[in-house]
């Protein structure tokens, strides 16, 4: 059982005023001021912090007299350790602290006696547990980086589908990303690039032969839709991370969103342990992935609507169409289902077309962030509007999608084949719906590795850990195997290996009692399953 550290301090406080007034001071006009400051001076207490070194750092002097300088003086500073420090306060201790007040040439002192009461410190108990994780940290890091010939200008080299960080309901992942590489010798501008997620077997995504191989954009069944509308540069032959912020918290997402009353509560609400989705910043993302000292840029991408017509959305008029919120409850990308994630670029038709974000959240005043103006009759943020020759066009219609967006690069991915989970007589596994036997998601924090596309295509090739390809070729439904792009090359340094993770629940009690999302804490092996700051040789080598 997880125990919380608690250290309680004081506070019996007594004080004795020592003041010495020389006769020559009696005419000094500052005497009354400094005397008043002494009489009003009080001592307060703030909660200890992880870095607390001694008790004086957590005692606060207060006085309304701003011109009087106040400093501590003590012959016996009491060292109090906290949260993992070597020495801990085990017995009551008394500390004499003197506050010195100065105003001009006048000096006064006031003494405080501080009693620090000892309290038992209970440390949490951690348990080690061994699991299998892909050995990303063993891969060779790319050096002497050069352009990959006959490949897209932008490559998706890595993708994290699910992280163990959770939101308010202890289910929503927080810091998934795609890692992109500028495959040119010039800075690459991501302005007016769109990121979409969809089922590659749905409708025109599969029926159009060019779309099937990534040479036409995904055009239906969006599960995530986002536009980068500002100048955003990736240096030549360099990588960047695109943070795919959880889109369940975007106003309007969900199949019945526009028939529901508007509410921004879940977006803005912060708790003691978690920030609301819109409160999270790039600093939070970098802290989670330990990128504070990295020079890899982080680009934020959130789900957005697009103005169009769709009768199943509940209206025959133009309205902001948001994604239906597909995916499992614990990750917006889904670590099991068959999916395509694509980057495309807006085509301005030679200057006659534009794309704009309506109610762009970050530019709105606070009151409008809480209660935005309607967009085509609906209250929503960040709605893409496409105009041609000044007239709004249906941005959801698949022919318009092909007209106004050019393909850049795509990755196809799915979960793992779980052979022990297959039922008697089962010959194939189906990754098109959750709950199908023989399927399972990738472990938390794993960064899938991709390699350059086949010449003539724009779909990156998924490099599998050793032996996984055999499972897919044997058990995957042929139609699903067809749309995937697996690298058939064995990379012995990319395989599942034993990894030690840290839990707050004893696994000996039975794994059915261990919730890896709430009971696991950060461990080296778990974090190195991803490599947000690295680019590997295989990422730039066509198999």
What do you see in this structure?
This protein is mainly beta and about 550 residues long. About 10% of the residues lie in helices and about 30% in strands. The chain is built from ten helices and 31 strands. A hairpin with a 2-residue loop joins strand 22 and strand 23. The radius of gyration is 30 Å and the shape is globular. Residues about 1-20, about 45-55, about 75-90, about 165-170 and about 250-270 have low confidence and may be disordered.
Which regions contain 5 or more consecutive residues with pLDDT less than 50? 1-22, 47-57, 75-89, 167-171, 248-268
> Number of folding domains?
2
State the helical fraction.
Answer: 10-25%
Strand content: 25-35%
Strands side by side in the biggest sheet: 15-14-9-8-27-28-29
**Beta strand count:** 31
Structural class, judged by helices and strands? mainly beta
List its traits.
10 helices, five-stranded mixed beta sheet, disordered N terminus, 543 residues, seven-stranded mixed beta sheet, 31 strands, mainly beta
Summed up:
By secondary structure, the chain is mainly beta.
Task: Spell out the blueprint of helices and strands.
Blueprint lengths: L11 E7 L11 H11 L1 E4 L13 E4 L6 E5 L19 E11 L2 E11 L10 E8 L19 E7 L16 E6 L5 E2 L3 E6 L5 H4 L1 H4 L11 E5 L4 E2 L4 E6 L20 H4 L13 H8 L8 E4 L3 E6 L4 E7 L17 E8 L6 E6 L7 H5 L3 E2 L2 E2 L3 E6 L2 E2 L5 H7 E9 L2 E2 L21 E2 L6 E5 L9 E3 L4 H8 L2 H6 L2 E2 L8 E8 L16 E2 L2 H4 L16
């Amino acid at each position: 059982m997880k125990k919380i550290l608690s250290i309680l301090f004081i506070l019996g406080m007594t004080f004795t005023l020592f003041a010495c007034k020389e006769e020559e001071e009696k005419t000094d006009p500052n005497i009354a001021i400094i005397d008043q400051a002494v009489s009003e001076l009080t001592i307060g207490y703030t909660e200890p912090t992880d870095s607390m070194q001694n008790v004086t750092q957590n005692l606060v002097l207060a006085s309304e007299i701003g011109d009087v300088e106040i400093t501590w003086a003590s012959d016996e500073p009491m060292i109090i350790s906290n949260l993992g420090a070597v020495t801990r306060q085990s017995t009551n201790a008394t500390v004499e602290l003197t506050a010195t007040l100065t105003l001009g040439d006048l000096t006064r002192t006031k003494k405080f006696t501080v009693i620090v009461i000892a309290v038992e410190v209970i440390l949490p108990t951690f348990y080690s547990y061994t699991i299998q994780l892909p050995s990303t940290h063993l891969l060779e890091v790319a050096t002497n980086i050069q352009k990959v010939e006959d490949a897209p200008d932008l490559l998706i080299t890595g993708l994290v589908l699910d992280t163990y960080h959770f939101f308010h309901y202890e289910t929503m992942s927080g810091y998934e990303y795609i890692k992109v590489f500028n495959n040119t010798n010039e800075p690459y501008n991501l302005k007016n690039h769109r990121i979409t997620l969809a089922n590659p077997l749905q409708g025109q995504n599969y029926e159009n032969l060019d779309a099937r191989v990534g040479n036409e954009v995904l055009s239906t069944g969006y599960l995530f839709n986002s536009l980068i509308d500002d100048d955003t540069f990736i240096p030549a032959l360099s990588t960047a991370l695109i943070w795919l912020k959880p889109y369940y918290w975007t106003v309007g997402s969900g199949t019945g969103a526009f028939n529901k009353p508007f509410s921004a509560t879940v977006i803005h609400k912060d708790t003691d342990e978690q920030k609301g989705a819109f409160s999270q910043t790039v600093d939070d993302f970098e802290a989670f992935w330990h990128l504070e000292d990295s020079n890899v840029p982080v680009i934020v991408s959130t789900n957005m609507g697009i103005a169009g017509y769709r009768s199943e959305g509940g209206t025959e008029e133009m309205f902001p169409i948001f994604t239906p919120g597909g995916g499992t409850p614990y990750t917006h990308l889904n670590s099991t289902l068959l999916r395509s994630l694509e980057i495309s670029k807006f085509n301005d038709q030679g200057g006659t077309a534009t794309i704009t974000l309506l109610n762009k959240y970050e530019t709105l005043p606070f009151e409008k962030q809480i209660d935005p103006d309607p967009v085509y009759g609906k209250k929503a943020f960040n709605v893409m509007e496409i105009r041609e020759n000044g007239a709004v066009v249906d941005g959801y219609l698949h022919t318009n999608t092909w007209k106004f967006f050019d393909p850049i690069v795509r990755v196809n991915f799915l979960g793992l084949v779980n052979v022990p989970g297959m039922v008697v007589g089962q010959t194939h596994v189906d990754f098109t719906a959750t709950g199908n036997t023989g399927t399972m998601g990738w472990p938390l924090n794993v960064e899938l590795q991709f390699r350059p596309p086949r010449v003539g295509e724009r779909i990156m090739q998924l490099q599998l850990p050793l032996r996984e390809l055999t499972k897919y070729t044997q058990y995957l439904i042929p139609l699903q195997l067809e749309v995937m792009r697996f690298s058939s090359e064995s990379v012995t340094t990319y395989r599942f290996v034993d990894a030690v993770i840290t839990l707050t629940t004893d696994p000996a009690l039975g794994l059915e009692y261990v919730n890896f999302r709430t009971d696991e804490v950060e461990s080296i092996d778990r974090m190195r399953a991803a490599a947000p700051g690295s680019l590997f040789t295989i990422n730039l080598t066509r198999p």
